[in-house]
Design brief:
alpha/beta, TIM Barrel, five-stranded parallel β-sheet
Amino acid sequence: MANIKFGSEVYTWFMQGTGKGYDNKLDHMIKVAGEAGFTGIEPMVLEISESALGCCKYWLGDFCDPIKLKDTLQEHNVELAGLALVCAWDGEEEAPNEREAADFTMELLKHFPGSMLGTVTLPSGREKDVQRRRLNVAKNVNAVSKRAADLGIKCSYHPNSPPASLVRTQEDYDVVLSSLDPSVTGWTPDVGHIIRGGMDVIETLNKWQHLVNHIHYKDFSGNGPEPWAQMGTGKLDFHKITEWLTLRNYEGWIICEDEAHVAVDDPDGVTIQNGEWCRENLYPLVGL
């Protein structure tokens, strides 16, 4: 049986006021994740948090301190599943602020052996030089991942699907995922972003299965500019996706990242619902 654990992504809380609603409140998110039955949490290291959003440093704030972070996790019996480092990375090389954020993330992860360094592309537009910038993303993700791998840190690249994202369609995936260095990084399929990008989830998982070392679950309605559904109410077959993982003896985290509109007003309630739904519907599939 696959060794699978379930965790929560902090983006569910970030959506309220684009970071303002739960700024410097990672302790609250950890507490709620634990109450929901999740055994892990994945905070962000958001490079633009201060400069563009006026929020706390990296959207971690006080929890940039590894001791404070570790103590809070232990208090609520929650593990650090990973840190999602969010940068644009579409220049010829890492910008100084991007490299600083990456180095900070690695230093913090040294205190949490086994936790994943997720590399997440910040949507930066598709108006010009798309091919060159896609290749830059792969080159910079490889560079970050190589530095992390040299420190013994596992890495995983996470594409997304807003209209401004550089890596959202089948063509984008073919360019970027085939340019990743599999000796230093894997891939985090986000099943909601895959379907929003016009791809079949299982076909895409099959094509790039050698890279899968982390995974994000969010449900998809297909309606409106933010086409998300609360976990278990949309179009995605999470039973089938979870069975795909177990058949391949996947070992690692399933991270729930609910972006449904209701989560903007009630991220705590949505996180609790996600945990209950996973416990009732998915835990039996993985032997929990």
